[in-house]
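worker-3 :: picked PAS domain-containing protein
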Amino acid sequence: MITARAAASFDPVGRSVATARAFVRDTLQGWGYTDIVDDAVVLTSELVTNAVVHAGTTADVLCLRTDEGVRVEVGDRYPERDVPLQGTAQSFGSPDREGGRGLLLCAALASRWGVDYAPTHKHVWFQLDLPARPVGIRSAGPVLPVEHLPVADGRVRVAVVQIDRSGAINAWNEDAEELFGYDADQVTGKQLTDFAAWPHTPGIATGIADALQLSRWEGSYGVRAADGRTVPVYASHLRVRDTSGEPSTVCLLVRDFERAVLQSPQRTPGDTAKGSLSEGRTTDPFEVFIGSPAPDDLDGLLQRTVERSRDMLDADSAFLLLATDDETELEVRATTGLPSARQRFARVPVEAGTGRYGSARMPAVHDDLTAVPGAVPLLNGTGMRSVVTVPLKVEGRLTGSLGVAAEAPGRYSNEEALRLQFAADRIALAVESARLGELERLRRGSLSFLVEASDLLAGTLDRDQTLALMAQMTVPTLATWCAVYTIADQSSEPYLSFVLHEDEERIDGLKALLSKIDPPEPVPAPGARVWNAPAEAAHQAALRTSMRSLGLGSTPHVGSGIGTTLATAAAVGGETVVLPLVARNRVIGMLTLGKPTDDHFRQEILELAEDLSRRAALALDNSRLYSERMAISQSLQRSLLPPELPHVPNVEVEVIYRAAGEGNEVGGDFYDLFPIRDGAYGFAIGDVCGTGPEAAAVTGLARHALRLLAREGFGGPAVLERLNAAILDEGARSRFLTLLYGELWPQEDGGAILKVVCAGHPLPLRLRPDGSVEPAAEPQPLLGVMEDLELYEQTVTLDPGDVLLCVTDGVTERREGTRMLGDDGLADVLATCTGLTAGAVAARILRAVERFAAEPASDDMAILAMRVPMPHHP
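worker-3 :: C-alpha cells ->
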C-alpha cells in the first residue's frame, strides 16, 4: 500500500542530474529512510542521466513510500529505445560501454526493477526494501502492529530462581515448576548446572558457571525439563547480596521466543549512573554489558564495549582493535583511559615480531609490560604495566582484539582472561555485523560521493573553479585541510595554487606555512604517501614561538601573532598525505590532505581520496587544455576584428557586434570601416553562411580582401567580383556570402555621398529627419555561388540629419515562436529614432531585437549606423 508520494520533473540539461539526486535524497531523508538513501541516489543519478543526456527528454521522477520500502520511477519521453532482456547472453553488454549502466546498477542494487512502456513515454522503476529488523525486540521500534507481536502460548511465565554462592538452588517459584516440570523440593539444594543444557546459543564455549559469576548478564541457553526435553530460555542474571553480606544470584527465565519480556532497555547518555565500583567509578548494576541492545552505530557499540570491559575488570584503560579487510593488520577503533586522538585508526600488523601484535590470535596475560617491551604496541609510552588481551573471532576468523590494562603490575590472572574472553565471544558477532554494515554504508556512500564529485567536476572548464571544487569536496569530508599544487610543464616546479581549511580563520596561516617549505616531490606512483614536512615545519614554528614568548615573559593570546602561529601548528600537526594528480600519463600536480595534531587517516578515506584525485586530475587537465585553446581561439578571433574605427569627418559612426555561441568573439557576421585614400572611406557589413570557426575563416578572407582591393583603386563592383572569385577558389571550404559594400565621401557642406553595392544582403535603410524610412539600395546576387556576376553600384546622398542603418539577417530574422521581426519591423523601430545620434540609434535597434524574444539570439548580429549631424548655428 502506498503511504506517501513525491514527484518532480527535470529539464533535459546536464545540471538536472544533480538536482534530481538532491530531490530523492531530501525526500527519503524526510521519510526517515536513511538506510537506503545512498542506493536510491546512485540509481536515480544513472536513470536521470539516461533520460536527460542520452534520450534528451524531460525526466519525470516519482518517489512512492510503501509498507515494504521505497519505489522510485524515472520516466522519459523517448519510448522507442529497446531495453535488453534479462537472462540473455547480451543482457547488458560490457560494463565499460557508455549506455546501459543504469539498468546494470538496478540489477545489482535494487530489490526489484523493471520497465513500463506507454505510447508516448517509458518508466524505468526500481524498488528498495527496508533492511530486515527483528520482530518483538527493542530494535523493531517502540510501536508494532498487533500481528507482528511475539506469540505467547498462554500467559507469559517468568521463572525466578535464586542460587547461593556455591551455585546451589535455594529458591524456585511456581512459574519455574510450570515451565520445567520440577517441584521446588526436587531442585532445592542442587546445582543449577545440573539442569542447564549449555550452550544453547551457537558459538559459545564458556560454561554457565562462569556466566553466573558475572555481576550482570543476559543471554540464551537451555534447561533440561523433567520429561527430558530441552527448553530454550532467555535468562537475565543479577548478582546481589543480603544484609549480612552473603552474595547470591537471582535468575529470571522466560521461554526464548518471549525474550522481549526481559530484554534490557537501552540507556541514553543522559541517564544517571547508579551503584558503585572500586576507585570511585560508577555504573548502573542493572545495566547490561553483554547481550543488551547495541547502539545504532559501530563507534557507539565499540566505545560502550571498551568502557564496560574496563569496568568489569576494574582496569585503568581498555582498547578494541578491528581487523582490516585482508586480516593482516589490526586497526585501533575505540579506547578509554588512553590518548585516543593519537591512536585512533592507527594500524598494527598481526604477525609476531618487533613492534607487532604477537598475541592477537590467542588470549594473553602480561604481568609486566616493562619485561616484554613491544608486546602490545598500542600501550607504548602510556604507563600501563599489566594487560590482558583476548581475540574477537567469528566462525574461526580473527575479527579483532579486546584488551584491558592497569598501571600496576600483576593485576590480572587467567580467571580475568576467561571472563574477558567470555565477554568477547558474546560481543564478537554483533561487532562484526556492525563492522560489515558500516563498511557497506561507506562503500555505497563513497559511490554516491564520487558520482556527485564527478558531476560537479564535469560541470566546469574554468581552472580556478576546478581547483576550488577539488578542495571543497575534500574539506571537511575527507580531511581537515587541503592544499593543491599544480605543475605547468615538466620543467616547472610545483606551485601552491589553492589552500583550504575547515576553519576559515586558519587559511592564511596555513598558506604562509606551506609557502615557506619546499613542495612535495611530483612522484607519479599511485596511492597516498606520507609527507612529514608540514608537521615538522609547524612543530619548529611552534617551538620558536614558545621560546620567544618565554623570553618576552608574556603568554601568547588568541589575537596575537603568537596565538595564530600556535593555532596553525596545531591545525597541521597531524598526518599529512600527498596524492599525485596524473592525467594523460603526466603529473600535473599534487593533492595534499592533512589532519590536526595527533590525528591519522583511515585507509578507506585514503582509497576514496585516491579515486577522487584521479577524477580531479582529469578535470584539472581538461580545464587547462580548454583555457589554452580558448586563449588561442580568442587571439585568432581578435585578429579578424577590425582595429579601432577611424574618425570620419562630419559623419557619426557606431557599430554593435554580437557573435553567437559561447566563447566566440567573431562568427559569420562581420563589419569594417577603413580609409581608402584622402577623403574617401570604405565600409562593409556582411554575413557568411553559418556560424563558428568555419564561418570566421571566410570572414577573415572577405575583410582583408576588401581592404586590399579597395586600396588598389578598384571600384565597388570590381572589388566584389574579385572577392567572389577568391571565395569560389576555396573549393569545399567555400561558403556563400551576403555583403553590403560601399564607399563614403564626406562633403564639406555637411552632407555625404555614398556608392553602395548590395550583394544579397538585407537592404540598407535611410531615415530622414521627418521620420520616413526607405531602402537605400537595390538587391543584387550574393557572392560565392556563381562565377560570372554582373554587379553595379548605386549612389546615395545623405543630407544633414539623415541616418543610414545597415544590419545583418541576425537582426531581421529574430524570432519568437512563429513571429519574426522582419524588414517591416526593423523599419518601424528605425522610424522612432529621429533626432538620435548614431550611437543611440544602434543601441535602440539592439534593445528592440533583444526584447523581441525571450530566448538568447542563436545567430550572429552586426549593426552599423551612420548619421550626418545637423549643422550647428551660433
